[in-house]
Amino acid sequence: MWEETFGSGFGDDYVTDAAVVDGDGLIVTGFASGEDGLTDLWTRRYAADGTELWTSRVPMGVKFTIWPLGPGLVVTPEHAVVSWARPKDGMFPEWLVALPLTGGEPSWTVEYPGSGGTIYALAREPGGDLMLAGKQGEALMVRRVTSTGEGVWSSDACTGMNGRDVAIDSQGDVVVIGDGPGGTGTNIRLCKFSPEGELRWGKDIDGGFGADRGYSVAIDASDRIVAGGAMMSEVQVADPWLAIFSP
Question: What does residue 59 show for φ and ψ, rounded to 5 degrees?
Answer without folding.
Answer: -60, 140
